[in-house]
Structures
1.
Amino acid sequence: MERQEKRSCVIFHDVTERARCVYATDSVTELLGWSPQELMGMSLFTLVHAEEEQAARNLHFEILERDLSATLTYMRLQRKDGGYALCALSRSVAKNFVVGTLSLATDDPGNTRAALATGGVYVLTPTAGHLAFLRWATRVGPSQGVIYRGPPNGPPTPFSQLPERSDRLALLLDRFTQKSASLLYWSDDSFFPQGLAVKQDLLQFIENKSERSEFTGAMDVVRGWMTDVEGPNGGPFATCNFTLRTFPDPPQDRQVEGIFIATSDAILLTLVPLT
């Protein structure tokens, strides 16, 4: 019997007050019905259920203000057919963007998603608190079991006065091509040469052979990941440290931690500078 993978996609939105979508991978269509093209420029809050919109706006501000990574939010998002789906959105700030992986809330075998949410678990949907997967979580909003709402009148500080964010870089890598790390999308040009073309191999910027081997090993761990009714296969998450040749002027080597997350469409790689 053929295994059927539960779907997940990647969404990038900007750090403005509207949280406008700037990129989405194809599986968003299976999850919500919208095509990636239809979502471009659309505010995230257009999709959020009206009862949760203000909380979602408050949380967006808080994530930016605290420069958070690996947060997990449970909230209802509107499907194109007009209904709503209870979704899980795992998000991290990547300098000028917020990058997130989106899936249905119940598609989390073994509570893996919650285990990775070191930045906190936030529940916006009042009726979600009874679900079994939330009873496992140890960080739900400001305290265990509390539905997140934030300030009733919205953020007290203008978005223009938010502090500068750290230099995390989010990249999408081709999950299905073996023996390479083809770049599909990246959140910031500051690490790479201007005009770098899509499908370039990230491995060309990792000069140390042992580090390249460790990098490809981490990719292999997440590349084969699949979830189905029998549970997860492989692993959805891996990390490794390596030296990346970056291209400010002049070029320089930077030590980074790479955090790999598997999604249906691609591997999401977040680079956290160590030097």
2.
Amino acid sequence: MSVVGEAALTAFFDGLFGKLSSSDFLDFVTDKQVFEEINKWEKMLRDIRAVLDDAEGKQMKDQYVKNWLADLQDLAYDVDDILDEFATEALGRKLTSLEEPQGIKN
């Protein structure tokens, strides 16, 4: 993974954390089990982010670290796809609720 790839992976994880923390996403997640799972993901992303900078520096010398970073990038893409599906569903529900006729008030 190149230096550009390293920076992209770091920025990508920052973006994932931002998606998990967004108010629209948190408003959508109402099920307690799902919310607890999202909290676990947030913790894992923070832990991964804490190790990422050090690992990126070591990958030039260590093939194991290089492979780990490649696997981590694949995982990040999978998580991003799942979050995009959540965001699409949340937007669809929001639009549906806006289209529903509101009762006539006197």
